[in-house]
DNA sequence: CATTTGAGTGCACGGTTGTACACTGACAAT
DNA sequence: ATTGTCAGTGTACAACCGTGCACTCAAATG
């Protein structure tokens, strides 16, 4: 073994050297997948593989080589898809925030989202179906490398202002000025985010169960809304 | 250069090999510092140096060698103080949480802490005088290695239950059952923690100013307390 | 005084990392 | 049919990593 990795011997079994087909184990039959499609496939493998590797580590803790390895390509080929690992990270941020925004849109469409329970249900479902992405966001929001942290912060601010607009349309909040609305939106978002973290940790030894987490969050949200109903805007 | 670091040439200038005095640049005159005191000094240098190195990176991103280097000792000497880097991390958690608890105690002693402004002032002061420790806590709370994350979670739960007891002594909350009190305490703590993060980021390009952060937090806290005053316990 | 202790040293090791470089060969376009 | 593109390859290197080992020598111990 000269220097580099010599794993995935099954895929390398094809003896011809520099065989392009070695990458991303060709699962589908023999259909001649288009070039662009193949590229997109390994790109996705890189992104998904990174999230997988982050099950128990932070983004800074996974190496370019590991990522390439799990995607089934050689380290240097990574650069065909991303200029750096940070760039991959930023893409993951965008992907995650797209899910978050989708969730807000779902909540908007659902009738009576002003009841805390309904919105929480949506949150729980989204977290469960996109665990890895939410874990990535919560883990890197404060802990990540500066570039990624800034990317999340920016997207987060956008998210808050979207919710601010939503709030402004609710009966009884029309008289509120923008600052108060944003203040409340910020409080709601940060509370919801704490729920996300608890959900990801839930049903693990030494943690509260999912039901408990949701029940508590629901009461917290109701308490906030109760405060809002008594709030004297502009103070 | 065979393998290892060859930095800090000034300290190595003393030509005698394996000179113990090379560690932790002897700043004070020539007083014969006791052995235990010297050990404590490098131990502190290791802890402080780690926090310093974490100015722009997460705990997982600093290496044992770097830590030893900034403390002025050789990498292997690190093990005279900690069995592993994780152990050092856990000590940092304890140190940080001691500060947090001290803050709660300060707040308890201050009259009229039920007014949001007073408690926030204490928070801001503590964050400013212990920036590095708070940065460590906020960065590793969700992003850190499992061992440290668990340590912080445990201490955090303790902190919430301390605040729960405090709340139970406030006029008008005596009728609340324990679950409701804890729910409110949890909400307050997570909101305050969000403030800490904002404070650490404040006055940096692209972020809100400290005054804005405090003003918003104060209103958020007032909103929560308003909600509590109208809360119907046991629902 | 002689002896023990232990914080610190220097060297060495096997391993991993990011990335530069020259390459190949299947697909796409001409 | 010829050519160009470019995702993927293998080799190589210098830097860094954690840690084992045998050491030194000032301070503490008796």
What this model shows, in words?
The structure is a homodimer of 235-residue chains. With 235 residues, chain A is mainly alpha-helical. Chain A is 64% helix and 0% strand. Chain A is built from nine helices and no strands. Chain A has helices at 9-12, 35-53, 64-71, 85-109, 116-129, 131-143, 146-168, 178-201, 210-229. The longest helix of chain A has 25 residues, at 85-109. Chain A is elongated, with a radius of gyration of 22 Å. The N and C termini of chain A lie far apart (71 Å). The relative contact order of chain A is 0.09. Residues 6-23 and 25-29 of chain A have low confidence and may be disordered. Chain A binds a DNA duplex (30 and 30 nucleotides) through residues 2-4, 16-23, 32, 34-35, 38-39, 42, 63-65, 73-77, 79-81, 85.
């Amino acid at each position: 073994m000269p220097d580099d990795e010599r794993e995935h011997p099954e895929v390398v079994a094809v003896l011809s050297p520099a065989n392009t087909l070695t990458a991303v184990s060709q699962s589908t039959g023999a259909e001649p997948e288009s070039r662009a499609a193949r590229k997109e496939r390994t790109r996705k493998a890189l992104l998904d593989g990174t999230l997988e590797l982050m099950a128990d580590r932070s983004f800074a803790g996974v190496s370019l080589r590991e990522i390439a390895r799990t995607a089934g390509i050689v380290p240097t080929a990574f650069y065909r898809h991303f200029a750096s690992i940070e760039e991959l990270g930023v893409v993951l941020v965008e992907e995650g925030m797209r899910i978050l925004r989708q969730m807000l849109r779902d909540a908007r469409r659902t009738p009576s989202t002003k009841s805390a329970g309904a919105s929480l249900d949506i949150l729980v479902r989204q977290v469960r179906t996109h665990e890895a992405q939410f874990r990535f966001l919560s883990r890197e929001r404060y802990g990540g490398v500066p570039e990624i942290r800034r990317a999340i912060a920016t997207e987060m601010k956008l998210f808050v202002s979207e919710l601010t607009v939503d709030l402004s349309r609710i009966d009884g909040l029309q008289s509120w000025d923008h600052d108060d609305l944003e203040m409340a939106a910020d409080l709601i978002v940060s509370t919801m985010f704490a729920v996300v973290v608890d959900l990801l940790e839930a049903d693990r030894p030494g943690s509260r169960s999912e039901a408990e987490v949701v029940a508590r969050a629901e009461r917290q949200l109701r308490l906030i809304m109760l405060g809002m109903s008594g709030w004297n805007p502009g103070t």
